[in-house]
Specification:
It is globular, with a radius of gyration of 19 Å. The protein is built from eight helices and eleven strands. A seven-stranded parallel beta sheet has the order 3-2-1-4-5-6-10, with helices on both faces. The protein has a two-stranded parallel ribbon with strand order 7-9. With 259 residues, the chain is an alpha/beta fold. It is 42% helix and 16% strand.
Length: 259
């Protein structure tokens, strides 16, 4: 089995590489690509790295040609909701163009690889009370440019399944947290502030709205779900992934403070 992870230098991508390498057979290969193709301290030695800007169609074709994957996890993209407000078109262009190029590269290679397209819970946006709990059939009401870009990726995956029968499985992950996550996200933002206070910084926390509630999953569980969804999910279908439990931001902060 040959695996390809786009965005392997990112949060979920790096943990997915760890998971696949820990569970793969001896003759399997795990390939990863990101913009620079640099080996990071957390990258396993067995990971085969490629540098590629998937916004370039030729680069996407080269990645697919070199990796010759049986399974593709497309995790590359602009992942910050806040950044999407500052640069809406850049977010939409980056996320959609890269995916179109990857899908076209798979078609051009006449590959039979199964492909995972992660959307986001942000696709649901403003959820009406009568739509709770959120199911895959809940109306999509994205309320950020990032959410719109993920709806676009989601439906592009569906379209390539319907038009070309590419075995695309779509998932909508809810919030995931854990080691290596960027400080722009809530859990590492809290953790880094607490560490700084322990190191002598004045004991003041920037916490934002702690009354909000989210569904948090450990990233190592999330990437296991990605692998299971791609292997056993039905092509063309979409699956929510989360813990199924709502947790308050204040609860998250209290747990980190207790540590």
């Amino acid at each position: 089995m040959r695996f390809l992870i786009t965005g392997v230098g990112g949060f979920a991508g790096s943990h997915l590489a760890d998971h696949l390498l820990s569970t793969a057979t001896a003759d399997s290969e795990v390939w990863g690509c990101d913009l620079k193709g640099e080996r990071r301290p957390f990258h396993p030695a067995e990971l085969k790295l490629l540098a590629a800007d998937l916004r370039d169609p030729a680069a996407a074709r080269e990645v697919v040609a070199r990796a010759r994957p049986d399974r593709i996890f497309h995790l590359a993209g602009q992942a910050f909701v806040g950044e999407s407000w500052a640069n809406p078109w850049e977010t939409i262009e980056t996320n959609l163009r890269a995916q179109v190029n990857l899908l076209e590269a798979v078609l051009a290679a006449r590959s039979s690889a199964r492909l995972l397209v992660p959307g986001s819970n942000e696709e649901y946006g403003r959820v009406a009370p009568e739509d709770l709990p959120i199911r895959e059939t809940c109306p999509l009401r994205p309320d950020s440019p990032y959410g719109v870009s993920k709806v676009g990726q989601d439906l592009l995956g569906l379209q390539y399944f319907l038009s070309y029968r590419l075995p695309v499985v779509r998932v909508r992950p809810f919030n995931h947290i854990g080691p290596r996550q960027n400080r722009k996200f809530v859990a590492p933002a809290f953790a880094s502030q607490i560490a700084a206070i322990e190191a002598g910084q004045p004991p003041v926390m920037q916490a934002g709205n702690v009354t909000a509630r989210r569904d948090f999953t450990d990233v190592r569980d999330m990437v296991r779900a990605y692998a299971l969804a791609l292997e056993f999910g039905e092509p063309g279908e979409v699956y929510n992934i989360g813990s199924g439990r709502s947790r308050g931001i204040q609860e998250l902060l209290d747990v980190l403070l207790s540590l």
